[in-house]
């Protein structure tokens, strides 16, 4: 199976999986879920490709249930770290200077997303790149009730990590999908960034008005 590198070659999902195996996948899911520097990592396409490769038996020899269980644990743990980090730094996040790996505009997007959807944002953000990295941090900064956060975090982690991986697993056994993996991955990325594009267009329309 050959997948399409949608960015630098070292971020290609199949390259990452073949090089680092399951431990590498878990580390990436953890980092993208809760570490501010993980926003650029390929979460959705990585999970989908993981499902494909589990079905194919290439690079990953673990059973699907175990892979999903570990992925959910990594995703939930990542958000927990992000939330606790947000609680610790508090308003200081808004004063943190921009750098190559940190942009205040990403925090602003996550904050707006959190304000719009409330606790549900913890689940919904899982399916929105960049926003899913910063939302748990914003929830911590905002002082969201810990028990409430944990519940939504677990639900979101299961739906995202398990759902996208299982989808890749079963679709990976369909001939059409296996023959058009590149197009499928492009579609996944396009759908996942659509909410961001919509928000950008809304913001521009608001400024123009």
Helix/strand/pairing category: mainly alpha
Quaternary structure annotation: single chain
Radius of gyration: 17 Å
Mean pLDDT: 78
Identify the overall geometry.
globular
Q: End-to-end span in angstroms?
A: 49 Å
Low-confidence stretches: 1-6
- SS summary, helix count: 9
Number of strands: 0
Q: How would you sum up the major sheet? A: none
Order of helices and strands: HHHHHHHHH
Helix % is: over 70%
Beta-sheet strand percentage?
under 5%
Total separate domains: 1
Task: Describe the protein.
The protein has helices spanning 13-34, 43-56, 64-89, 104-117, 121-124, 131-141, 146-171, 175-179, 181-208. The chain is mainly alpha-helical and 209 residues long. The chain has one domain (9-208).
Topology, pairings included?
Layout: H1 13-34, H2 43-56, H3 64-89, H4 104-117, H5 121-124, H6 131-141, H7 146-171, H8 175-179, H9 181-208
Helix pairs in contact: 1-2, 1-3, 1-6, 2-7, 2-9, 3-6, 3-7, 4-6
Summarize this, please?
The chain is mainly alpha-helical. The chain has helices at 13-34, 43-56, 64-89, 104-117, 121-124, 131-141, 146-171, 175-179, 181-208. It is globular.
Tag the structure with descriptive keywords.
209 residues; mainly alpha; 72% helix; globular
């Amino acid at each position: 199976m050959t997948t399409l590198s949608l960015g630098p070659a070292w971020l290609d999902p199949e390259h990452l999986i073949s090089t680092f195996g399951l431990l590498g996948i878990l580390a990436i899911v953890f980092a993208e879920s809760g570490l501010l520097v993980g926003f650029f990592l390929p979460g959705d396409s990585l999970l989908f490709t993981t499902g494909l490769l589990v079905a194919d038996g290439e690079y990953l020899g673990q059973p699907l249930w175990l892979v999903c269980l570990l992925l959910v644990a990594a995703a939930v743990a990542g958000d927990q770290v992000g939330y606790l980090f947000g609680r610790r730094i508090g308003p200081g996040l808004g004063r943190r200077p921009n750098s190559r790996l940190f942009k205040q505009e990403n925090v602003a997007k996550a904050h707006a997303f959190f304000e719009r959807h409330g606790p549900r944002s913890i689940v919904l953000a899982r399916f929105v790149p960049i926003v899913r990295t910063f939302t748990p941090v914003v929830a911590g900064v905002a002082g969201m009730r810990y028990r409430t956060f944990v519940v939504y975090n677990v639900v979101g982690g299961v739906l995202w990590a398990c759902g996208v991986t299982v989808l890749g697993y079963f679709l990976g056994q369909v001939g059409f999908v296996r023959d058009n993996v590149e197009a499928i991955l492009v579609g996944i990325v396009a759908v996942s960034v659509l909410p961001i594009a919509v928000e950008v267009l809304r913001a521009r329309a608001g400024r123009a008005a």
